[in-house]
Structure to design on (641 residues):
């Protein structure tokens, strides 16, 4: 662009660019897969697997295999119908090449290939191709009994689709390796992919999904998922570490060609665990199907409680929050024309679905409450307890929640605040104990670093109601310092610090306190985690001095390597049992200095997995926690997170 005389930048016809083919995907990957971080990396796999699941929804596939190879490439294989390979009647190139290299090309726009599918835009697999260093697709074509193959590099075909032999099987095998120039310093997590495959198998009932990880040298990992019970099994799985109040409720209906499937069960927990799916896609931001489910539960429980006399005339109606406490539910809809908010399909937008789901759930839930009065009474009593606790919490909340981001009158006395007033430039260290808090206060940069010492272990918020949580002194200090409020009153705009950093000892007590804090943030300030504001500091385990040189080791492996390098020299080794053993200068240079420190960002990659983990580790049920400890105790080498 040329500059005009007044300094403004010119805007001419030649400045308008037209991106051909898949170049738009490579220039703006976030629009198509949600980003270039680990979430975007896993989304590549999901897009390819979703195509295989769509074959299953069409009744053409019952086996899917996903393999993580040692070179970080991925293979997705199914026994579906295989992508057509014949020349496309309009474009006169192989249909396989058209699908793999052209945006908005597919059989899911109403052409009859799929009655129901998760793919809508014809973007998914071609976007994966564009963002891959290389991709190879093999189609076993049942139409002519031949096997076909084509290879691509960064979305560009490396030759025509070629027949490589005969075959008796049918299906598509896609192998690709992500482009390391786009996805940097990331690697696939087996646990994340396993959770996604498990969810797929629950929702796509009767389909076998096998996940294999070939990267571990001695013991390659693999898991196979198959659930005949579908989402009913999913609810039982989610509640396996909780105490249910009644048998699960299940309903399946079809309304105007839209399949609706819902499973519901209340437990004695304080949290809500609801998972919405649309055409097997986990719509993590909800949508109209989730709104319909919630509306049905609230209306039906209020109607029943009034009719049965369990809710008196003087009592207010249950709110949505009262009804959802302790609820575990899965709502899955199959729509011939779903409308999602974006290509990443995080929210369902079809307006008509709300009324459909609400009607189906209201009818089934009312019938259950009338049929099983004992279970109905337990559910209503749970809602009454929640309603009363919420009223008490409302009073307590007024005492501890700051009214605005600039107000400082309610800040806890032990908070050592920073002088910077722009929240985007500040960070808060939540420090275990007064001793470590003293060192952190002296060692920090007072301009942008605030310190909040906590005394002892905070309340286990997994086992406490909201009113009890808000009456806890340490929790009050956290809420006041952050300024966001909690639960349904949480407002991220009022966050006083851009980074919230947990700074705990590298021992058993420190790990316990860190888990208690993470439980609190996950249950009551989840957007703080989801938006990337929560971090874990990494204090060193060892101080290694050789002569005048001092080095710090953050893991046992680092310590062993350093000692090996210093072999033959006089070495002084100090093991830090707690943060209080470091003087302010050491704490600054190892753990707090932005130029030197290492921070781990806390993310919620999978809400269902996080929900089960917190319930298992911090809930009332002891046997699951004991099994977890016994299973993993031998794997622990140190407590450095």
């Amino acid at each position: 662009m040329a500059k005009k005389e007044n300094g403004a930048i010119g805007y001419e016809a030649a400045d308008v660019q037209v991106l051909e083919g898949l170049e738009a995907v490579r220039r703006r990957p976030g629009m198509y897969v949600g980003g270039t971080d680990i979430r975007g990396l896993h989304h590549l796999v999901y897009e390819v697997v979703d195509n295989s699941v769509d074959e299953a929804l069409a009744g053409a596939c019952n086996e899917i295999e996903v393999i993580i190879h040692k070179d970080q490439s991925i293979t997705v294989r199914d026994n579906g119908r295989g992508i057509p390979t014949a020349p496309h009647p309009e474009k006169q190139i192989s249909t396989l090449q058209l699908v793999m290299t052209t945006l908005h090309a597919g059989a899911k726009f109403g052409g009859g290939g799929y009655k129901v599918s998760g793919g809508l835009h014809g973007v998914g697999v071609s976007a994966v191709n564009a963002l891959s260093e290389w991709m190879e697709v093999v189609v076993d074509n049942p139409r002519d009994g031949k096997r076909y193959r084509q290879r691509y590099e960064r979305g560009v075909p490396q030759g025509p689709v070629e027949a490589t032999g005969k075959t008796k099987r049918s299906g598509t095998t896609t192998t690709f390796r992500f482009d390391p120039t786009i996805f940097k310093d990331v690697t696939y997590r087996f646990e994340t992919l396993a959770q996604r495959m498990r969810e797929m198998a629950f929702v796509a009932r009767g389909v076998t999904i096998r996940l294999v990880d070939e990267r571990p040298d001695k013991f390659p990992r693999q898991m196979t998922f198959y659930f005949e019970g579908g989402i009913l099994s999913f609810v039982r799985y989610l509640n396996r570490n909780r105490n249910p109040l009644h048998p699960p409720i299940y309903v399946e209906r079809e309304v105007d060609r839209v399949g609706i499937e819902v499973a519901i069960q209340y437990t004695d927990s304080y949290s809500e665990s609801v998972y919405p799916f649309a055409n097997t896609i986990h719509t993590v931001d909800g949508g109209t199907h989730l709104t319909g489910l919630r509306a049905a539960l609230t209306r039906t429980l209020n109607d029943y409680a009034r009719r049965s006399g369990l809710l008196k005339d003087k009592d207010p109606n249950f709110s949505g929050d009262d009804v959802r406490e302790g609820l575990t539910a899965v709502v899955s809809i199959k729509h011939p024309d779903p409308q999602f908010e974006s290509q990443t399909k995080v929210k369902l937008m079809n307006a008509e679905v709300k009324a459909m789901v609400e009607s189906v759930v209201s009818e089934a839930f009312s019938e259950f409450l009338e049929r099983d009065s004992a279970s109905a009474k337990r559910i209503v009593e749970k809602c009454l307890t929640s309603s009363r606790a919420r009223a008490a919490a409302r009073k307590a909340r007024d005492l501890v929640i700051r009214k605005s981001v600039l107000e400082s009158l309610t800040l806890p006395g032990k908070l050592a605040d920073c002088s910077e007033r722009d929240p985007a430039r500040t960070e808060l260290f939540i420090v275990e104990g007064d001793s470590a808090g003293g060192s952190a206060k002296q060692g920090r940069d007072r301009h942008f670093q605030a310190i909040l010492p906590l005394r002892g272990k905070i309340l286990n918020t997994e086992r406490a109601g909201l009113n009890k949580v808000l009456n806890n002194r340490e929790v009050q200090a956290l809420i006041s310092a952050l300024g966001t409020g909690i639960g349904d009153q949480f407002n991220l705009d009022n966050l006083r610090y851009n980074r919230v950093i947990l700074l705990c000892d590298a021992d058993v007590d420190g790990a316990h306190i860190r888990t208690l804090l993470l439980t609190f943030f996950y249950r009551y300030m989840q957007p703080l985690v989801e938006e990337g504001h929560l971090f874990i500091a990494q204090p060193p385990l060892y101080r290694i001095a050789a002569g005048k040189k001092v080095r710090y080791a953050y893991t046992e492996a680092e310590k062993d390597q350093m000692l090996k390098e210093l072999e033959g020299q006089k070495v002084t080794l100090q093991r830090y049992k707690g943060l209080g053993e470091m003087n302010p200068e050491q704490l600054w240079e190892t753990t707090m200095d932005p130029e030197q420190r290492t921070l781990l960002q806390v993310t919620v990659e999978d809400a269902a997995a996080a929900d089960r983990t917190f319930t298992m580790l911090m809930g009332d049920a002891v046997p699951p926690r004991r099994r977890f400890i016994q299973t993993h105790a031998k794997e622990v080498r140190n407590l450095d997170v």
